[in-house]
Amino acid sequence: MSGLLKVTDLQRSSIDGLLAAARGHLDGGRSEALAGAIVALVFAEDSVRTRVGFDVAAARLGARTTTAFGPKHTSRMSSQESLEDLTRCLEPGCDVICLRHHDRTAPQRAAAAVATPIVNCGNGDDEHPTQALVDIFAIDALRGEVDGVSIAIVGDLRHMRAAHSLLAGLSRFEGVRARCVSPPELAMPEPYATQFSAAGNELEQTTQMDVGNVEIVYMTGLPADTPHGHLSKEIRARYRLDRRGLEDLAPGARVLCPLPRVDEIDPDVDTTPFAAYFQQNALGLAMRMAILEHVAAPGENGSRHG
Ligand code: CP
Prior knowledge:
306 residues; alpha/beta; 5-stranded parallel β-sheet; 11 strands; 17% strand; globular; binds phosphoric acid mono(formamide)ester
């Protein structure tokens, strides 16, 4: 299996390699590294950043993309055809399959069905490993290294897949201090918390909107309607970042967000030196190029699937 299903598929050396490769793409240049390759974009849920990001990243590497199906067609097609059959039919012509799906088991099922590398672009409320790599790349770019970072991760940590993968990815680094901030019923799931702490990093979990004394504030969002129930306006307001809330931040702290933003960050924050989320988004192209190169690298026999 040469794809990317979970961020913890990657050892620290592989993440370091991806960070180095992404840095090499920051000049915005183009290459022919994947000339002749076809990348399938199979997005059964809405996406702008991830889908367009991989489309553009493929083009910058000389590859072409094909879109297998979009959200509008999902229910009709998925009711008639299994994901396994769909991916088997893509396998002969495609060198990489970028997959977003509402089913948590989708990446593993697709990877079991085909030899083509599967890149998990978000599976239900489970993981979003490519977003985590973009986020880790942003932290690296903002402070020069990821080891030793202090971070507050704020929002619906129970269901937000980007938050799960970020904490899992940070568990590969050393000396990380993470504070998970959420309403009590929307706390970070225990397996991610345990994995992070077991790696020797420091984890604090709180229901207080405490974003002080950290270098990075990662706002994942808190929708009004979560799978766990409706959240009142008052509760959502408690975990929102506005100009007044910036007074609690450490000097030099930076605010990240996987986007799309709903209302977790007041637009007033955008023009302050704390805001780094559009810079983070812009860094995504270089990391997605690095990911495609990583998963599509020819195997020992020269075939792309390895
Ligand atoms: N951050 C993220 O996954 O955005 P999209 O849903 O637009 O891909």
